[in-house]
Design brief:
With 159 residues, this protein is mainly alpha-helical. The chain folds into 2 domains: 34 residues, no CATH class; 95 residues, no CATH class. Helices cover 47% and strands 11% of the residues. A hairpin with a 3-residue loop joins strand 1 and strand 2. The longest helix is centred in the C-terminal third of the chain and has 16 residues.
Length: 159
């Protein structure tokens, strides 16, 4: 008989732990009082991509900016293309969710500082370029001479 492991949430004074199959899966600080929320954009990005028009009026929209650069990118997008701004931002957020948030943040910083076009396609191209440059790094390791170890084994008084 197979018993399905349960998800257990343990509430502590300062934090909440989520356990699954007797392993700690996630831990985050406990929020107290009214008006507090904590939304992880990675959990809802797929639904937001399907309905990009809902993002503009989303109640917890402020929780969907991992850093201030993401907020600046949305502001830039809304100013330059008001009809497609939310959709473009959600594509950028999806790149961060499916890939590396830090890399996307750095790319947004470079694009915003140089007043370049902040679009999901430009962010995606920059991600591909950074991955290609990291793959081109060749590491050369010189062969190790094991003669020293042979002398240690045959002459123990050398040590």
């Amino acid at each position: 008989m197979y018993v399905c492991p349960a998800v257990i949430a343990r509430l502590h004074a300062e934090n909440i732990e989520i356990w699954y199959a007797q392993q700690l899966v996630d831990e985050f600080p406990r929020l107290r009082g009214k008006g507090h929320s904590r939304i992880n954009y990675r959990h809802i990005i797929d639904w937001l991509i399907r309905k990009p028009g809902a993002f503009g009026q989303y109640r917890y929209r402020e929780e969907l900016f991992p850093t201030s650069r993401f907020r600046m990118a949305l502001d830039w997008l809304k100013a330059t293309c008001p009809l497609q701004g939310h959709k473009e931002y959600l594509k950028i957020l999806e790149l961060a969710a499916k890939g590396n948030e830090t890399v996307v943040d750095e790319i947004l910083g470079r694009l915003l500082d140089s007043n370049n076009c902040v679009r999901a396609t430009s962010v995606e191209l920059a991600i591909q370029k950074s991955q290609e440059s990291s793959l081109k790094t060749d590491v050369i390791i010189e062969p190790i001479s094991l003669d020293l170890y042979d002398t240690l084994l045959t002459n123990p008084e050398v040590v």
